[in-house]
Amino acid sequence: MKKILALILSLAMLTAMAVSLAACSDAEEEQVQVGIVLPTKDEPRWLQDEASFKDALDKAGFTSEVLFSQGKSDVELSNVEALIEKGVKVLVISPQDAVAAGAAVNKAKAAGITVVSYDRLITGTDAVDYYVTFDSFAVGVAQGNYLIEAYKDKTGVPLYIYSGAVTDNNAFIFFAGAWSVLNKAVADGQFVVENCPAIADYTGKALDAEKDHETLATILGTITTNWDPAVAKTLAESNLVAANADAKGDVAILAPNDPTARAIADAFTADSAITSYVVTGQDAEMASLKYIQEGKQSMTVWKDTSVLCPVTCDLVSAVLNGETPKTTTTYNNQVKDVPSAECSVTVVTKDKLAELISAGSFDQSKIDAAK
Fold first, then answer.
1. 337 phi and psi, to 5 degrees?
2. What are the distances in angstroms from CA 283 to CA 39, 169, 257?
3. Are the beta carbons of 122 and 105 closer than 8 angstroms?
4. What is the three-class DSSP state of 359?
């Protein structure tokens, strides 16, 4: 009888241990090492980033989860809180609103999580440990130089300028980059800015995204698309209604990114007084590559997320391995100089696009199917 009882107790103990081990195993399986929060899944660019992240982190052997804020700071905060609950060690976040995101990353930092600001810099907090981005200033310079080269033998060309959202620190840097070259072209008479009286006092003067932040906020506030194609199209249509005949004809357009470039291009195409236009873009979205092939968009600046994500992955790997990540520069977020890793960008025109397709960087069938 005692032997039977002992056997039963032994079996019970083994069962309990098995359940405990299974629970531990499940907990380990559910552990998410890297949490990623992106602004929205309604723009192709961020879906490209999601795919690149999943691929890069999986290959590096890290567990991860990607959540989208859908353009709302409260959703962004709840996403971060959910990832904190899941025990992430590193939070990679591209903020919907650079300032409002501070509340979310402050919570992550308080939980002992390393915070990596991705592509957009979170401002007004010391909770940001690292920043991974493309050279945003170079993006703007490339856009401005493209317009200058396109009209190198012209004078008095009407120039319409637009910006991204004033809640996005990158929008300031993009514009500062473009204006660093365009201001001279305006001062020399190559261009006449038609839709932004607020920029008049800065003809022939560069603007610094950090030192002149308040000035730029005022200027950008009059030409912001809020990264929204509908807003961009409405603003462009309003500008064209207000413009006189001298402000039309052959025109140059500084558009901040691809969705707004397409919307603005559509607005200018619909105006019979516009004989031709050159319009910039950014992100190399499939729909814009199609527009470039069709002659509806002039260029885009390709920020290859397949480059940015591995750089982020290397940084994450160093953090998880207790090492100091490699950085190349710093960006000031109004509170601290954040150690940053920068990636280069590529200008894509119709001819360059043909080369990239031949090299396998882009798929023609995907471009054809884009809407």
1. -90, 110
2. 15, 17, 7
3. yes
4. coil
Helix, strand counts (H, E) of the chain? 13, 13
pLDDT in tens, 306-350: 788 889 999 999 999 899 999 999 999 999 999 999 998 999 999
pLDDT tens readout for residues 80-129: 999 999 999 999 999 999 999 999 999 999 999 999 999 999 999 999 99
What are the DSSP calls for 216-274, one per residue? Answer: HHHHHHHHB-TT-HHHHHHHHHHHHHH--GGG-EEEEEE-SSHHHHHHHHHHHHT-TTE
* Residue 110, φ and ψ in degrees, nearest 5: -65, -25
Residue 38 three-state SS: strand
Burial zone of 29 (CB within 10 Å; 0-12 exposed, 13-18 middle, 19+ buried): exposed
Which are the contacts of 226, defined by CB distance < 8 A and separation ≥ 6? Answer: 164, 165
pLDDT at 57: 87
Residue 156 region by backbone torsions, left for phi larger than 0, else alpha for psi between -120 and 50, else beta: left
Supply φ then ψ for residue 38, to 5 degrees. -115, 155
